[in-house]
């Protein structure tokens, strides 16, 4: 069987007809034409505006919301909200450009691009495909590390809050984040065995609910703290020189751009989300509605959470908003919020990593199509005596590769558990190339916009401005990591 056949059949990995005890992926080529399958041989897509919005909100309202109060504290009451609105506009605009790239040619009947890389290959081609793939999958890998760190911080916060409640606030209640990273990693190993992206819609909905839960609690506690303070803290220009040095002020301001960019970042999985949407209407039309709804909702939440957090703490706003309220009463409410963060991050980890999992598995299948280790799917009946449809498919390569991936991200998280700095760097790494540059270039190519026309100049100006922001944010985050490494000792430092 040729590479095209192998690739086509791999696209429906984990979603096969209910027959045979085991199936070799290379033998299942005639799935199209059934009412259970779309015209490309994949299972019928069932997504809509609401499921797509759930995927986006799961990806967007993530751990990034926790660092927004700190980001606004670096920029102040004027620049902070303005920068957040500008980022939301750029994200929505470029996401709309990217949504049009799901199909090549006709927006209704054109060839589907299943992944971000497929869209770049169809519209740009050449070396840009490899560059895009490297940046995208490096960013997805980094997000997995960032989410592992964030989840461990929240689990550690629950442990310390309960310790203070039982033993009193004079007890230091020191603990390491390492055991909690291991717990999170084991959980992700289990969930990573879900075969493909379309089958985790329920996990996205649960995660989206959890994201609203902890964001709402953080917002409420910020309002209560502000009322208790007797007014708003903070200043128009942010943290003042004296509290930090002039150099630190500059680096922190740059890092704040990265934190805000990370909080909005989801373009790297937009095409994969769009590939779950049913048609008609066209997938692009549905995706644009979901993007508008999701970005509007998340921006409202971000402005409220970031501003109320800054109002509550002023220049002392913490890198993680929920840890800033201390571990005092109501400790149970903070426990709920941090538990919601952990549940949300379990789902968000999968939303981000499934495209990377699928890419590696597709590549392996094309390279070794006859290998049973890579191609064969073993069917395990979930419950004895149940319908033949109630089974779970086990693929040995998927089991080994995804487990190894989670183990590696967990180990790296243990070595670099710096939430704020890692978040800022990831935001900088992915913002310009994946959120701005490639969508703009694909749109120019697709619409055949003449060089040096007004539209072309405006799009290129937007791209260059965002490049400058990304470089500055990366520099600020790297400076923060260097400072943290001076005092951190891997596997030994306790909080």
UniProtKB/TrEMBL annotation:
The chain crosses the membrane at residues 49-68, 75-94, 134-158, 200-224, 290-311, 331-352, 399-419, 425-444, 456-483. This is Amino acid transporter transmembrane domain-containing protein. Residues 46-482 form the Amino acid transporter transmembrane domain. It is found in: Cell membrane. The lineage of its organism: Eukaryota, Viridiplantae, Streptophyta, Embryophyta, Tracheophyta. Keywords: Amino-acid transport, Cell membrane, Membrane, Symport, Transmembrane, Transmembrane helix, Transport. One of its GO terms (molecular function) is symporter activity. GO terms for biological process: amino acid transport. GO terms for cellular component: plasma membrane. Belongs to the amino acid/polyamine transporter 2 family. Amino acid/auxin permease (AAAP) (TC 2.A.18.2) subfamily. PANTHER family: OS05G0424000 PROTEIN-RELATED. Pfam families: Aa_trans.
């Amino acid at each position: 069987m040729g590479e095209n056949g192998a690739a086509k059949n791999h696209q429906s990995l984990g979603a096969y007809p209910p027959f045979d005890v085991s199936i070799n992926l290379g033998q299942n080529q005639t799935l199209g034409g059934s009412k259970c399958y779309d015209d490309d041989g994949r299972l019928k897509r069932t997504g809509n505006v609401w499921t797509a919005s759930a995927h986006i909100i799961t990806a967007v309202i993530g751990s990034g919301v926790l660092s927004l109060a700190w980001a606004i504290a670096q920029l102040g009451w004027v620049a902070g909200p303005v920068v957040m609105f500008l980022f939301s506009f750029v994200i929505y605009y470029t996401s709309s450009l990217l949504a049009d790239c799901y199909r090549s040619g006709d927006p209704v009947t054109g060839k589907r691009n299943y992944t971000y890389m497929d869209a770049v290959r169809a519209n740009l081609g050449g070396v840009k495909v490899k560059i895009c793939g490297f940046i995208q999958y490096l960013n997805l890998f980094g997000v997995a590390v960032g989410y592992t760190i964030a989840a461990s911080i929240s689990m550690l916060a629950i442990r310390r809050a309960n310790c203070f409640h039982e033993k009193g606030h004079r007890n230091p209640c020191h603990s390491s984040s390492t055991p909690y990273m291991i717990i999170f990693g084991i959980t992700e190993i289990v969930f990573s065995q879900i075969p493909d992206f379309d089958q985790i819609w329920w996990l996205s909905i649960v995660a989206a609910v959890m994201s609203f839960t902890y964001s709402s609690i953080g917002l409420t506690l910020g309002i209560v703290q502000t009322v208790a303070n007797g007014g708003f803290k903070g200043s128009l220009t942010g943290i003042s020189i004296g509290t930090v040095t002039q150099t630190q002020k500059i680096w922190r301001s740059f890092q704040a751009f990265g934190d805000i960019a990370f909080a909005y970042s989801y373009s790297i999985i937009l095409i994969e989300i769009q590939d779950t949407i049913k048609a008609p209407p066209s997938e692009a039309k549905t995706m644009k509605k979901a993007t508008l709804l999701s970005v509007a909702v998340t921006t409202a939440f971000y402005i409220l959470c970031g501003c109320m957090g800054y109002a509550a703490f002023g220049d002392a706003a913490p890198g993680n908003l929920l840890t800033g309220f201390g571990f005092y009463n109501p400790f149970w409410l903070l426990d709920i919020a941090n538990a919601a963060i952990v549940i949300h991050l379990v789902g968000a980890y999968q939303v981000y990593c499934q495209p990377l999992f699928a890419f590696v598995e597709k590549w392996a299948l094309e390279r070794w199509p006859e290998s049973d280790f890579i191609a064969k799917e073993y069917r395990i009946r979930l419950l004895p005596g149940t319908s033949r449809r109630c089974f779970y498919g086990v693929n040995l390569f998927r089991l080994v590769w995804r487990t190894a991936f989670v183990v590696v991200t967990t180990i790296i998280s243990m070595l670099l558990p710096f939430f704020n700095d890692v978040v800022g760097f990831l935001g900088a790494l992915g913002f310009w190339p994946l959120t701005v540059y490639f969508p703009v270039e694909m749109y120019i190519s697709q619409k055949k916009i003449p060089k040096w026309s007004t539209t072309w100049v405006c799009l290129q100006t937007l791209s260059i401005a965002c490049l400058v922001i990304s470089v500055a944010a990366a520099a600020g985050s790297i400076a923060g990591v260097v400072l943290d490494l001076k005092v951190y000792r891997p596997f030994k430092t306790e909080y």
